[in-house]
Amino acid sequence: MSEPEPTAPPSAAPRLPLSALLFRVVVCTALVAAGGAVVAALVATAPDAGRNAEKAPPPRIAVIEVQPLPVERFVRAYGTVRALDTADVPARVQAVVAALAPAYVAGASVRKGDLLAELDARDFLQQVAMAEEVIRAIDAQKALLDTQERAASRAAELAVTDRELAAADLARVERAAAEGAAQPREVDRSRQMLIAATRAEVLADDALAQLAPRRQALVAQRAGESARLELARLSAERCRITAPIDGVLQSAALRTGESVMPGALVARVVNLARMEIPLRVPASSRALAPVGARVELVDRAGESIAIGSVARIAPEDDPASRTTTVFVDIEQDPTAASMLAAGAFVEARIAPGGSVPRIVVPRRSIRDERISVVENGRVRVRRVTVDFRIPEAPEGAPLADADWAVLADELPAGTLVVVDGSRSLVEGQEIEPVRTSVGGAR
């Protein structure tokens, strides 16, 4: 038998003929050459815009020349308003709420002495009646004791007289017995009568002496009952709870029929006519906030809402916060719509008087804590810190803007500052500064 012929291994893919490869290369080359020819033609036929050989002039920008201007000295402070006259009205006895006044509601205005609530006072009135009856009984015992004292005093006097008579009779009998005119038994009988009279005198003195401690005991007992009577009367009076000061009720939580304990808060009365504000100022600015300095309270927009003065200053600084506390008193109309409410957080400006030269710029020239200045015709951007703001143009200001910023940084006099901080200017840009003033550009 003949051996089978070996089979060839299968190939991955048939190879392209050389002519096909050449055709593809030629087509791709032609397409690339055509694209390049189109680009070259577009570039060659592009119109020439032409160029202006003259340089564009720099933009005209409004600037002001800063100079130190007189600014009123003041220090900024913050604090919380509190009422000078407040009163927490507690219950002073244990009783049941019998009635509430119509004005006993939070926010109601009350006058000193107005009824707020009335407690059930019947238990205390009964204690008053009982104490009065005990005092009347003690007074009756004292009257009886006075009668007994008069009788005991008279009995003591009679006992003394009786003893004296018995002693005189014994002396006579003894003289008669010595002369033989009386019997010994008569002497003994007289001596017995003297002893009996002496015993009666001792008993009368003892009875009279016992009346004084009994009187003192009655006096002490009456004083104790009088104190108990006064306490009962006070408790009955304290069942009528009234407002201790003029003001407005901050809280009123009692309800009719509930039982209250001594010390329980019945109401809180706040008088809004006199307010006090403890203001915190930097310890280094203590000299700018003396007693009597003018204090202006301002809102968030910088508008004045109240005027007061420094009444007193804390003697010590707070080492933790490096601040000191000054106290400001404010007199206000409690019915005014713009009154200060107790608990409000306020900003204040304390002005001791006088002016100092400071660098000020319009508030609109500052953007992101930076201003643009002009040096040698080019823009330079500088970071600045605003110390405080003033709501009106200082004396001698080059512009009539209503909002100015006093800088904590020093700028050389004559520095040109761009007025409008919102202009898109870059560092080093060449500009033409145009000085402005109250009368306009010049």
Please tell me about this protein's structure:
The protein is an alpha+beta fold and 442 residues long. Among the domains are: 63-73 and 356-441, conserved putative lor/sdh protein from methanococcus maripaludis s2 fold, CATH 2.40.420; 87-119 and 241-260; 123-238. Helices cover 31% and strands 31% of the residues. The strands form 5 sheets. It has a 6-stranded mixed sheet with strand order 19-18-22-1-23-24, with no helix packed on it. A 6-stranded antiparallel beta barrel has the order 3-11-14-13-12-15. It has a 4-stranded antiparallel sheet with strand order 8-7-5-10. Helix 2 packs antiparallel against helix 3 (184-238). The longest helix is centred in the middle third of the chain and has 57 residues, at 122-178.
